[in-house]
Amino acid sequence: MTETEKMLAGKIYDPSDIALLERREWAHAFCRRYNGTDETDIKKRRKILDKLLPNRGEGTYLQGPVFFDYGIYFKTGKNFYANFNLTVLDCCPVTVGDDVFIGPNCSLVTPVHPLRWQDRNVRFKEDGTPFDYEYAKPIEIGSNCWLASNVTVCGGVKIGSGCVIGAGSVVTRDIPENSFAAGNPCKVIRKITEEDAIQLKKELY
User: Fold this and answer.
1) I need a surface site. Which of 94, 100, 107, 196 has the fewest CB within 10 A?
2) Catalytic residue among 28, 33, 47, 113
3) Could you tell me where the beta strands, DSSP code E, fall in the chain?
4) How far apart are CA 8 and CA 68, in angstroms?
5) Which residues lie closer than 8 Å to 71 by C-beta, 6 or more apart?
6) Mind listing the pLDDT tens digit for each residue in 109-141?
7) Is 3 helix (H, G, I), strand (E, B) or coil?
């Protein structure tokens, strides 16, 4: 297996592999280009995202700045929206459904580092190249979800459709669909039901 194949399969891999290193540098360069654009540069932004995020759905909008490790392993459905400072470390696939809103300063992070420092610390190859051992776990976010500001979703987590994740939450375990969940670590507070529907009054029109 190549190091890329190991990474995507959730196996221990060497992130200093030249193919992975070049792909990250390429993605980081496109992030910098996107972050240097104005919001009114719609065509320019679209061209950049066509390269950086080829698997995005129709209607995807990224406020920027954005930060992706690879970009090509991030997939969204239609009408995806992310506010300022979206960070996606897509060392394993990150899959997002339709009509998902993400608030400012949110992170979707698939990498996992060993707990023991003996396994985690940087080591060196015969040619002096530094490297460490890492592995990653995929993230799945269902349709019709809202992640409020400063939410971190860790690798291996699945968030069901129709969920709201409260501000500042750190999601370390699966969240069932139609749940309001919050906290660090994030826990289900309650189900979202018809009683949560906004009652629009005539004076709002």
Assistant:
1) 196
2) 113
3) 61-62, 66-68, 74-76, 81-82, 86-89, 94-96, 101-102, 107-109, 111-112, 123-124, 130-131, 135-136, 139-141, 146-147, 152-154, 158-159, 164-165, 170-171, 179-182, 187-191
4) 16
5) 27, 30, 31, 52, 53, 54, 88, 90
6) 999 999 999 999 999 989 988 989 999 999 999
7) helix
The answer to whether residues 156 and 144 touch, using CB atoms and an 8 Å cutoff, is no
**Which is nearest to 162 in space by CA: 147, 183, 182, 184?**
147
Report which residue type is found at 53: L
Cα atoms found within 13 Å of the Cα of residue 200, Cβ hemisphere only? 3
What is the rounded distance in angstroms from the CA atom of residue 184 to the CA atom of residue 187?
8
113 tagged catalytic: yes
pTM (2 decimals)? 0.92
SS3 118: helix
Q: What does each C-alpha distance from 145 to 29, 44, 69, 177 come to in angstroms?
A: 30, 28, 23, 9
Residue 123: name the closest of 28, 14, 24 by CA: 14
Q: Is the pLDDT of residue 29 over 90?
A: yes
Cβ(178)–Cβ(162) under 8 Å? yes
Token pair, residue 131, equals 């490297």
